[in-house]
Each structure stands twice: as structure tokens, then as C-alpha cells.
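Researcher: First entry.
Model:
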Amino acid sequence: MGMLFLLFLMTTTWLKCYTDHGEALHMPNYVGKNLLEIKDIAKKKGFVIVVDSAYQQGLAPLTITDQHPVAESLIKEKRTVYLTVIRKGIQMVQLPEFNDEAKLFIKNLKSLDVVYNHRLEMDTRVAEGTLLDINYKEKSILDQLKDGSMEKVPAGSKLTLIISEKGYGQTKVPNLVCKTTSEAQLILENLSLNENIIRDATTSDKSTAYVWWQDPAAGSSIRFGSQVKIKIMQNIPDGCEENELEAPRDDAPEKPQEEEENEENEEEENEEF
């Protein structure tokens, strides 16, 4: 009995020492309230308020988003209470350094107050998951991020990430004969095909040279990412019209027999004259 009485006495004494008035206080819930509304009330309770600021899109300035001790905790008077509130004004955010590996760049973005989405584009020239471009306000900021000249953006800004993916389907090989090398390269790039360029002895300027042979032939079925061989020469190949620069297609429809006969008759009449 003596030990129990001693324990009771010690507990009572501790509770009286725990607060200046001999009773514990329940910590109010300040989360979601405005700092100006609770500041004076908290001081009257004897709390010492320490404020830290943060930014969260959609919340009014000075809104309390976190507190310590948490609500309903037993605390004593003159206890320091730590509050996190939404800061006033627009917070500016420095975007992370560019990394062409999309996963690593996104990982760095997650710690910032920015919104992002992504769009996949087929590109067989690079590894899958490569960050191809970054758009902000519908404009590319890739170069600014690469050279370090990108300025801070407002918190909550929206970014669109363009990320590469591999293509596993098939496409038709275009007709490249009579195209310039630069035209052929652009056509193949748009179809996610790669080129293997073979020059002849006449080629002095690759970009303005013309394709005179290709393999596979136009119209063939080929997998995305496959290679198309093209042979180029500096002058326009025979059979290409200078204005159209279009070679006759292997799959062009044959002329109707009646039309051919008419042409033959016209030729015979011309010979008579």
C-alpha cells in the first residue's frame, strides 16, 4: 500500500508540474484555418507560435496546412507550436538540370511544385524512355534547360514531357528515288526509319544530291526502326523531271488498253502528216 500511495503522489505531482495550472491542455486543431484568425487565440492560451511557409496550389495564403503537436495532444501552457502555412505571393521554382533519361528527370520534378504530364512519341534512333523534348506554355524549353539559361517558373506551372517509345509495327517503304538526300532523310525520319547513305564519285554536296537507287524497293513492308539503303548522285537522275523530281513508281497502275490503242492511232496519224 505504501508503494501505491507513493506512486499516486508522484503522478499527481508530475501532472501539476506538467502545466502551470495543474491540468493538461488539449491541443486545438488549427489545420485549414487562417493564421490571422488563430494567432491571438493561441497567444491567449500561452502558446508560442513558430511559423514555416510552403506553397500548395489551390490554397489561400496564410492557410495552415500542418501543425505540431497534432490536434488533441495533451500539452502544457507556453508550449511551442509549429505551424506550416501557405506563403503569400507567387512562388518561383527552379526546374532541375536536364537529364535525357526521362525517369531521372521526373524523379527530380516530383520534389517541386510543378504539374507535368507526358506524351509518348515513337523514335527508334534513341533508347526507349529518352526525354525528347519539354514544353512549357506550348513552347519547347529543351535548349534553355540544356544550356542552363532557363529562368524560374511560377509554382503550379504545367509542363509536357515528350518521351520516346519503340515501334513494333510495320510500315510501307516510301519511294525515295529522285528525292534530294535531305528530303529522303526527312521522309524516313517521319516514318521512324533509318537511312544508310551510299555516295557515288560525283557527290560533292550530300544534302543537295539525289537518290537514284534504294533498297528495299518502294511499297515493300518493313518494320519500324529498320534501315533503308539509298545511293545518291550529285545530278538529277535520268527519268526524273526537274520540277516534280518524282521517279516512276513500280506500283503505278497500267494504262487501259483502249487508251494505249488511241495513243498508237494518234502516233500513226502524226506519221502520215
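Researcher: Second entry.
Model:
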Amino acid sequence: MSTKPCAIVTGAAAGLGHAIVTALLTKGYRVLLADKNRTVRRHAETLALRMDVTSERDWNKCVALVKSRWGRLDALVHNAAYCQPIPLEKSSVVYWNKTLSTNLVACGLGTIHCRELLRNTGQSPAIVNISSGQSSHPIPGHAAYVASKGGLEALTRSLARELGPQIRVNAVVAGAMGSKRLYRQLTRRQLADIRRRTILQRIADPSEVANVVVFLLSAKASFVTGACWVVDGGKTIYQEC
């Protein structure tokens, strides 16, 4: 069994997932990078697995790999997400199912498959789910995404109640972060509006959100569970005068 703490991070290939992996490695973790796209084993302390987070078969493979290579699991980060803005009247059942399956159902599925390894081998095991500020401040065209993230926050509280006291479960409610996807999906006007309506007047670097994720996974947050930590530069409480 590994003497180092071990983590699984979904959606690990880029953006916030990449930043979370980097932050965990600096804290001495071994990390399995799970992503639907091809991931590169970037470090001696990482494993890479191409997986569909909505697939039970893939979750079985993921857990089996961690168990065989490291023999323990201390942390699980549900970061994988699907967000494709579509006007409500043009959205389909297929679109809704894909969004909810990826952003909400997969988090429950991953928890089901990882809970035994977390409970039996982890030292102060913890789960962090990545939510979004859109759960309370939606942008038009994102109804399915907003619903999935609101549901994820409710799921976080439910899992904390059900898995405690052995496993802590929290969520990070992330604000806008600099990424290729953000700049591709939002217009310059929308980006400027986000900055203007944020107390800190800027968009976050993914590493700033990743640092909060790592804190919630650590023993320093040993009395924190069932919480949804807002990391949005003050956007949630911003009010125009």
C-alpha cells in the first residue's frame, strides 16, 4: 500500500482539473487523472485513465486501477462537467440527459463506486464536488447546466449526511475562471459584465480555486462537511448601487 495519500480527479486533462492535479502533487499526493479525452501521464506520481464518468464499467476500471497500483484512496474530486449553452426552446431530451448525467448522476455514481475504498483505506477521506456560481446566478441558455449544479449542491449535503462521520463531502461553488472554454462560450460583453459584477473585478486563475479544493481535502478542514464553499471573488454578494 502507498504511504502517500492518493486521489482521483475527473475532468483532469485541462482547466480547473489540471490545476487541481498540480496542486495535489505539490502536497505530496499520488493522483489518477481521469478524463474522457486522452490524458498524458505527466508525473511519476500520476496515473492516467481515459474514462466516461457516466459509465459504471469505467468507474469499476478506475477503482480497480487505484486499488491495484496504490492500495488506497484518500480523496475524490468530481470535476468533469458538460456545459453547452442552448436556448431553452431548442434544447432536447438528449441534451438534458447528457448534461444531467455528466454533471450530477456521474458524481453519485463515482461516490458509490469509490466509497468502500475511501472508507477502508483512506486517512481522513474526503470528496469535493465542483459546482458553479450559476446555480444561484444563472446565465440565459444554461438551464440544464444550472439545474445540474443546483442538484449537485443538494447531493453534496445529502452525501455528507449519509457517508459521515467516516467520509467528509463538500462542494466548491466556483466563479468564472480563465479557460479556453470560458472565452469560447461567452462574448466579450458577457466577460466584461462578469468582471464588473465581481467585487474583486477580475476572473479567477484556476489555481486559486484549486487551492480551496486541496484545503477541503486536507486534515486542516477536518471539521468541515456538507458545506458549499463559494469561491467567486465576491460575485454572489455583489450589488450595484
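Model: Note on the second entry: The mean pLDDT is 91.
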